[in-house]
Amino acid sequence: MTTEVRVPTLGESVTEATVATWFKQPGDAVAADEMLCELETDKVTVEVPSPAAGTLAEIVAAEGETVGVDALLANITEGGAAAAPAPAAAAAPAAAPAGDAQSIDVMVPSLGESVSEATVSTWFKQVGDTVAADEMLCELETDKVSVEVPAPAAGVLAEIVAPEGTTVDATAKLAVISSGAGAAVAAAPAAAPAPAAAPAAGGKDIKDGPAAEKAMAEAGIARDAVTGTGRDGRATKADVARAAAAAAAAPAASPAPAAMPRGPVSADDASREERVKMTKMRQTIARRLKDSQNTAAMLTTYNEVDMTEVMALRNQYKGDFEKKHGVRLGFMSFFTKACVHALKEVPEVNAEIDGTDIVYKNYVHMGVAAGTPQGLVVPVIRDADAMSFAEIEKAISEKGRRARDGKLSMAEMQGGTFTISNGGVYGSLMSSPILNPPQSGILGMHKIQDRPMAINGQVVIRPMMYLALSYDHRIVDGKGAVTFLVRVKEALEDPRRLLMDL
């Protein structure tokens, strides 16, 4: 029986890859899920596992060839033909004491588009510990989310390749699990050969992938300037991009003022301080917010909204709404609907700048900022413009719960076109939200507070909320920003306008 090995899904917007390295040759025995070859795209390096056990019968796409998604890479012969290589394994004296033990690599899981590295924050298991399939081995921190790494198989944790604090790329090996009948015996010697692998990484016979070599030639970067993170120290295209960025930033970094150093601290004060390293997520939040201020021509306009009608409507129907839809009726669905309505009239607030182009989005993927113990995250409600009130409330509730539990995936936080940030839940009366690049607009909600208002010549008490729209003045003019905020105000003060599309 012949099994085809095809190019796996490469990610959103990635249509082709280059075959960088074949780890097996025709005639070699392969185990199920054993790595056959490595592909390089313009974003990441992808390892292709064997879909079945057997013998590699034919390589269709040789090293250096460019292949599309689902293209045929090789053929594997299963069944009787796969049994022939068995004596070869028996010939290796080191394998004999291990019985039926098999070494299984624990690799960095998919981190999501545009995320190229992570930091190993916590190991839940130690070398020699027994692990069950899908049991959590360690936790990684990226600049956006925390990612838990489950055990791919049951066995014994034989080796930890990346200890806590190590920064690893998207294709790195984290650990080795020894599984099978001889796993407990094999665990101890498994770590011993590790030092022998070090010279191989620096060996002269290691050849980089063609995509990396081409990128180095185009960027004019010497191989010594690139730190290879691929298998056996091979350079990947991402490594070259990092080296090029570092080289470009080096001259510009020298005249730039460094972060303000701390002033002198007395010994008494220092003894009462606690120094904690910023998490990778917190570092990225800080960097992205500052980059947003430095890149966009950010401006904020303000207005206030009388929440009387929304609150009355919510109080009248919240019981029936929850009974029918199984979710509470909050204010966020009203604000989401009002923003969708306003974005249709002022589409530049829902657009972004790409070089010298303006990209208008004929859809609304609404980002809803949420505070978590780890930091601020912005899960995205996709196609919010096509959702009902109930669908929006369910989506926000589910995303908020996953955010607090640290369970959001990368895909759930990408692709937003506009953001709503509700500082009112923390008691904020007024603030100026910072843009979430590359978006051009973010709406800040605030605390609802009873205030005296002049209505038809009389002073009455009304529940009022300040609204703040921060926008990129490069693409949104003052008239558009004010119009957007006025339309949001009108829709909230008379929710019937949403039904009439006015």
From TrEMBL:
Cofactor: (R)-lipoate
Domain Peripheral subunit-binding (PSBD), first and last residues per copy: 207-244
Reaction catalysed by this enzyme: N(6)-[(R)-dihydrolipoyl]-L-lysyl-[protein] + succinyl-CoA = N(6)-[(R)-S(8)-succinyldihydrolipoyl]-L-lysyl-[protein] + CoA
Biased composition regions of type Low complexity, renumbered to the chain: 251-261
GO molecular function: dihydrolipoyllysine-residue succinyltransferase activity
GO BP terms: L-lysine catabolic process to acetyl-CoA via saccharopine; tricarboxylic acid cycle
Domain Lipoyl-binding: 2-77, 103-178
Top-level EC class: transferase
Keyword terms of this UniProt record: Acyltransferase, Lipoyl, Transferase, Tricarboxylic acid cycle
Family annotation (CDD domains): lipoyl_domain (cd06849)
Gene3D superfamilies: 2.40.50.100, Chloramphenicol acetyltransferase-like domain (3.30.559.10), E3-binding domain (4.10.320.10)
Ranges for region Disordered: 251-275
Pathway: Amino-acid degradation; L-lysine degradation via saccharopine pathway; glutaryl-CoA from L-lysine: step 6/6
Signal peptide: none
Name by which UniProt lists this protein: Dihydrolipoyllysine-residue succinyltransferase component of 2-oxoglutarate dehydrogenase complex
Species: Thalassovita mediterranea
Underlying gene: sucB
